[in-house]
Structures are given as C-alpha cells and as structure tokens.
Amino acid sequence: MLKIENLHVAVGDKPILKGLDLEVPAGEVHAIMGPNGAGKSTLAHALGGRPGYDVTDGSVAFAGEDLFDMEPHERAANGLFLGFQYPVEIPGVSMLQFLRESLNAQRRTRGEEDLSGAEFIKLARGQAEALGLPADMLKRPVNVGFSGGEKKRAEMVQMGIMDPKFAVLDETDSGLDIDALKAVGEGINRIMRAQNKGVLLITHYQRLLNYVKPDKVHILVAGRIVKTGGPELALELEEEGYAEVMA
Length: 247
Prior knowledge:
- The protein is α/β, with parallel strands linked by helices.
- β9 (166-170), α6 (178-191) and β10 form a beta-alpha-beta unit.
- It has seven helices and twelve strands.
- The chain is globular.
- The protein has a single domain (2-246), classed as Rossmann fold.
- The chain has a six-stranded mixed sheet, with helices on both faces. The protein has a four-stranded antiparallel sheet with strand order 2-1-4-5.
- α4 (117-131) packs across α5 (148-162).
- Residues 2-247 form the ABC transporter domain.
- InterPro entries: AAA+_ATPase (IPR003593), ABC_transporter-like_ATP-bd (IPR003439), FeS-cluster_ATPase_SufC (IPR010230), P-loop_NTPase (IPR027417).
- GO terms for molecular function: ATP binding; ATP hydrolysis activity.
- Belongs to the ABC transporter superfamily. Ycf16 family.
C-alpha cells in the first residue's frame, strides 16, 4: 500500500533522510523506532506534505499512485491520515464543526455527497463513545483545554470519522497515561487493524506495541533504515538500547 524508495528529504540546507527504503503492505502494522534526530518525524511530515520538508530524491507510491503528485489535501482525500505528536489547538472552532467540514471536504474531492448534519452527529458520537471521549467535548474548540490524553483520544476519533486507508502516527503514545494508552491502542486496532488497512507507527518506546502488535519493526538511524525485524526487535531495544541491537 505504501512503498518508499531511496527517499531523501532536506529541511533547509540540512539533509535529514538519506536514502530511506520501506514498504508497508495493506493489512500490516509497521513500527519505526530510532534515537532522537534520526528522521522519524521528518518522514511523517514529508509523507503528509508539510511545507519546508523538501524531497530531493526518491519516490513514494501510495495505493499505486505517486504520492508526491498530490497536494496535501488530495493525499488526505485519497486515504492518507497523519497523526501528530503534538496535536494543535484551534480556538474558536468546535470539534464538531472542524470534523464535519474536514470529512465533507474529503468526500467532495472524491465525488461523494456530503453527510447530513444528523448523519455526521451519529457517526461522531459513535466514534467518541468507542474511544471513551465524552460527547460534550466534541462541542468544545479543537483541543483547547484538552489534556494530552484527551488530545490523542480526539485524534483517534478524527481518524475513525475520516476512515483512512493508511495512517502515519507520529509518537501517538507521547504523554499518555496507562488508561489513555490502552484506549488509543484499542482505537488503532479497531479502526485500522481490523479493517485490513495499513499503519506506520513512529514511536520511541515498546509500550504502545503491547497494545498494537506490529508485523515488522524498523530501526531508523541517521536518515536510513539500518535494521528490520519482528516484534521482538522492539523488546530488544527496550532492554539493550540502540547501540547493542545495532552492534
């Protein structure tokens, strides 16, 4: 579903990704782990199309199409979801308004009809209930006053509503307590894993992988994948650190 070949990405004059190769088939969850500064978030931003992350070489095929031929909103409409390490706050815009406009904008891009207000409310409440997010929080401004755990649950609600083909989740476990971590993990499994979609989990730690078992784990160091293994590789990293695993 996602095939990355020889990807080079620079931020300003500084090269960050230096020939990254990675393939994630439909129905699989792959985890990327690596030390700070390895290029994990740069990969997520480049896939999402964030300005300032310049692709200088390589290619990315998404669902058989050239990802870099699409604008960011077209990537989203074609089924790519990007979860942020630090979800942004949008004062003055309610979660319901934001999510309904986002969903219907994507539907229009795909040539589909808008959901009615009643249809959307039913969908949003169902996703919020499944994630343990109180329904009245959907009426509040986007992420304003939310705790770290509430922001991540809200992001999973957004993913459930958008129903993407593939999710790139950048340190979704950051700042979560045990209950929120479990809820987010169960949300990923329900929305993505159970529906034969693709997931790229970017994380520092094993703990999220206790709830979302990856098919493969990749170690990213200095802009390249240097080692790939099964779920046991994450456990080795947790116990031994990067130096021992890569020796």
